[in-house]
Design a protein that fits this description.
The protein is about 45% helix and about 10% strand. With about 280 residues, the protein is an alpha/beta fold. Strand 2 (about 50-55), helix 3 (about 60-75) and strand 3 (about 75-80) form a beta-alpha-beta unit. The mean pLDDT is about 95.
């Protein structure tokens, strides 16, 4: 990575944010939205604020971390119920699930921005996200939600580097998209499935698998961890503890994906599909 190039892109981002005047950031607590919010607050002060959706599809720990970050920096922050599970078209889990979720979210954020005198809404998508199937981008375009990190040309590696330079503690945090992404398209999303996934991934995290996914395939849990941790997952004591816990929360079968963790794996077969 070219560090000077990353810093130049950051200056571009700063210039863009200055011109906005005020900004509401869709804040998940992940690396990208944290960086965007930190830069916006640094530039705009009280004219920058955060809004975080709270529902069954979002990990409780992620929402808590988001709240902790804004409190320590004295950033105005609204946590609001997003009610995605009330949308039948979302729960049915078609290939355009993300579009309907994001459209619902961005409509809510636009209303929050208007109520609080924020001229613009932005989300933390970066240029690497353009390489995957992202129907949520269509929702952003329709609702006028900006993607300043993309506009500045920043990718994930550069954002992590710049976040570390800014002293953001989560600069190396693993990606954590919504829990619904662990359920195969066409399989209905339920509160029970989401709770099982959240509990299972939290358990693996406690066992030292800092980057993991638990895919919900009916009665089967498919575990993904980094390839360097596959041996650890098969160590007898760890293996037995995983089996016991996963059986206890409702999974009948537990499988370890030998390919390891791959972001966006559930989107295979959908790439190249027009939004």
């Amino acid at each position: 990575m070219d560090k000077d190039r990353a810093r130049s892109k950051n200056e571009n981002l700063i210039d863009r944010i200055k011109k906005l005047g005020s900004l509401l950031v869709a804040f998940s607590g992940g690396v990208d939205s944290t960086f965007l919010l930190a830069v916006a607050h640094q530039i705009l002060g009280e004219k920058a604020m955060a809004a975080t959706a709270s529902s069954e599809i979002h990990s409780h720990s992620e929402i808590k971390e988001a709240g902790d970050f804004t409190r320590t920096r004295n950033i105005k922050h609204i946590i609001f119920p997003s009610h995605e599970m009330s949308l039948s078209i979302f729960v049915s889990n078609g290939a355009d699930r993300c579009y309907h979720c994001k459209r619902h979210l961005f409509d809510s954020l636009s209303a929050i921005a208007e109520e609080n005198g924020m001229a613009h809404v932005a989300h933390g998508a970066n240029v690497d996200d353009l390489n995957d199937y992202r129907p949520g981008f269509r929702a952003a375009k329709e609702t006028g939600v900006l993607a300043p990190l993309i506009a500045a040309g920043l990718n994930k590696e550069e954002i992590r580097f710049l976040s570390k330079e800014m002293g953001l503690s989560n600069w190396n945090k693993p990606a954590m998209p919504c829990l619904a992404t662990r359920i195969p398209y066409g399989s209905p999303i339920t509160g029970e499935k989401l709770k099982m996934i959240e509990k299972a991934e939290a358990f693996l995290l406690e066992k030292g698998f800092f980057e993991n996914r638990v895919r919900h395939h009916g009665s089967t849990a498919t575990i993904e961890v980094n390839t360097g941790k596959l041996k650890d997952a098969l160590e007898e004591k760890i293996r037995k503890s995983i089996l016991k816990y996963f059986h206890g929360i409702g999974f009948e079968h537990i499988a370890l994906d030998m390919e390891g963790y791959v972001s966006g794996k559930m989107n295979r077969g959908l790439r190249g599909k027009a939004e």
